[in-house]
Design a protein that fits this description.
180 residues, mainly alpha, 6 helices, 0% strand, signal
């Protein structure tokens, strides 16, 4: 009987951790579905993540434009927190795609340009103790992705020059190539 309260507490902790992990990057159901749908095509997945992060960046710009908005600091902090989580998750995907030699030559230049814009927007809000730490984490994550993408691009160009992709392979390079 003494174990029952501990088991209930452990179960509650596990459930809350699972719920927190599921929404760690605050993706909407539509965004989660878009990420899942693009799983087979790395270039499409890069575009999906880029679009999701861009929506959070635009939210910050809208908040900054409205000087009288209530809860402004909290909204900026929340958006920066979401960006930090999304960019970290995105970086994991890029690393996996790089190690698996997935062809990202087309989306990488756009990604590099986008990261420069993201970094600039994250630096725009005035200093505030309520979000300065999370801003620093978000900027570091964006700088890391920019660096990773900048290093990946020439490596990908060189790799695919030596190993041209098959014309019959699917865009993500995942799955079997039909034999003739």
């Amino acid at each position: 009987m003494r174990r029952i309260p501990f088991l209930i507490l452990a179960l509650c902790l596990c459930l809350s951790a699972a719920q927190a992990q599921r929404h760690s990057t605050a993706l909407s159901e539509r965004e989660e579905e878009a990420v899942r749908d693009a799983a087979a095509d790395p270039a499409a997945r890069v575009a999906v993540y880029q679009s999701i992060i861009e929506s959070r960046i635009k939210r910050i710009q809208v908040i900054l434009a409205d000087k009288r908005a209530q809860g402004r600091r909290e909204d900026i902090r929340e958006s920066m927190d979401e960006i930090a989580g999304l960019v970290d998750e995105f970086q994991d995907n890029l690393e996996e795609y790089s190690n698996a030699h997935r062809d990202l030559r087309k989306p990488l230049p756009k990604l590099i340009d986008a990261t420069m814009r993201w970094e600039s927007v994250l630096k725009q809000p005035p200093d505030d103790d309520s979000y300065n730490i999370i801003r620093k984490l978000a900027i570091e994550a964006v700088v890391d992705v920019k660096s990773q993408a900048t290093e990946m691009l020439p490596a990908q160009v060189a790799y695919f020059k030596e190993h041209p992709p098959s014309k019959t392979a699917n865009p993500g390079g995942v799955g079997l190539i039909p034999r003739e």
